[in-house]
Amino acid sequence: MERVGRMFRSCIGLPGIAAVFVVLVSSALQWHHVYAQQPGGLVVGYYQNNGLCDADVEGIVTSTVQQAMQSDSTVPAGLLRLLFHDCWVEGCDGSILIDPTPSNPNPEKTANPNLTVRGYDVIDQAKSALEQACPQTVSCADIVALAARDSVILSGLSNQGLTLDMPTGRLDGFVSSAAEANSLLVSSQSTAEQLTQQFAQQGFSQDEMITLSGAHTIGVAHCNEVTGRLYNFPGSPNGVDPTLDPIYAAQLQAQCPPNPDPSTTVDLDPITPFVMDNNYYRNGVTNRAVLASDTAIFEDFQTQFASNLNSDDDLLWEQKFGDALVHMSTLNLKSVNDGEIRTNCRMVN
What we know:
- This is Peroxidase.
- With 349 residues, this protein is mainly α.
- It has helices spanning 16-24, 27-36, 46-49, 57-71, 75-88, 120-133, 140-157, 178-184, 192-201, 206-213, 227-230, 246-255, 279-285, 292-299, 301-312, 314-328, and strands at residues 172-173, 220-222, 265-267, 339-340.
- The strands form 2 sheets. Strands 1-4 form a two-stranded antiparallel sheet. The protein has a two-stranded antiparallel sheet with strand order 2-3.
- Helix 13 (279-285) packs across helix 15.
- The two termini are 32 Å apart.
- Residues 1-40 have low confidence and may be disordered.
């Protein structure tokens, strides 16, 4: 796969209001250049540029993700979520990968929001290949970030000629706490105001929050996150959340019974569940968002403008999503004082 560019870019013009909006949110593009210039910070092609590994580090990760996708089309959604959940707690340091041990029986992956996180095996496979190619060189945190990058690209985010580079040079952290994850990770029941505040605490604008929510264009939700909107909804004469399109609500009821098996899931996007596109927004503006937190974004007057614009302009959303994803991948990076290169992603050295 051809190595992708530093950030999403296109020579296609955006007419009218879309062009104005790009100017308003251009800070998401500008920070990247500043960040890349910081001494010791992340850079695109870190391993190649510094002569740390003769092998194609990024190509090995891409090949691993491609192979995993051939047997499981849901892999990209799992790897994208893995990056989000890793970076949101302790920063992008691979802390979500750490297994329980006698000294730390409750790491991040045992937290309630992380019990359904997937993709650990893909990270392990990439790490194994990289350890053979260049031992003790590539961090697990970088593998998680590159795998997420590959997931969105291979799922179609580059179909319009846009390109994305993921900077590398992260270190793996030592700390992993389920209690911290339970406290910080975003709930599927959050309001738009809560989401805005939670993202702001991590340094994201409200527009970046709306943009990153578009990741729900792929993947699934477990029915136990949805049934509260389908049965016995408070104040509803028919028991269904009135903010749901009635026909869509009936479709969801057919898939999610009142007391579903914990493993039963429903596609977040019923139209193109495996394609990175802006159908999340098209579904949302027509009252067909699965999760209550997603519906809240489309119902809240402060977020409606950006949500509607993203539903109308696929290219605009793709550009913004690429920049926001890279921003996400740079949260709270570890230094040589509190980080390392793990030889096994599931445990500290």
